[in-house]
Amino acid sequence: MPSQEVGKNPVVEKLRDWDSQAVAEVIDFRGETTVVVPPEHLLGACEFLVRNRDLAFTYLSDITPVDRFPLEPRFEVNYHLLSLDRRERLRLRVRLAGAEPIVRSVTSVWPTANWHEREAFDLFGIRFEGHPDLTRILMPDEWEGYPLRKDYPVEGYR
Description:
Helices cover 20% and strands 27% of the residues. By secondary structure, it is α/β, with parallel strands linked by helices. It has a domain at 10-99: Beta Polymerase, domain 2 (2-Layer Sandwich), CATH 3.30.460. The strands form two sheets. Strands 1-2-5-4-3 form a five-stranded mixed β-sheet. The chain has a two-stranded parallel sheet with strand order 6-7. The protein is globular, with a radius of gyration of 16 Å. The model is unreliable at 1-7 (pLDDT under 50).
């Protein structure tokens, strides 16, 4: 897809037309578009992007959390979407406070989000409301803390 002026991307415009509150910011960097979505609008925006026939972002390839410690909001959760029909990529990003990083689960939209969300919970401590089984997936059940947080001790808790 050719590079377009920020804010003139047709996907972003359709998302804004659907709900202007769902787009907090648009970042266009090196031909990749990232739409920053307020956490309370994430689930609705995801449902819209999947169900709108003109968009059809039916494939969730990854969920990538980022710890921006010591900045606030501390966490970002990036959702990497793909429209197979249109061969187009889109990244959704939500920003979460460090005190209580909680966002709605998107497993009802993309079942593959199940393991991605469990991994983000296990390694970063980000909670996904409505997740069917938010338990550790990589670390042992008795593990203390979240090892990919920037303030996690290098040698673990003692």
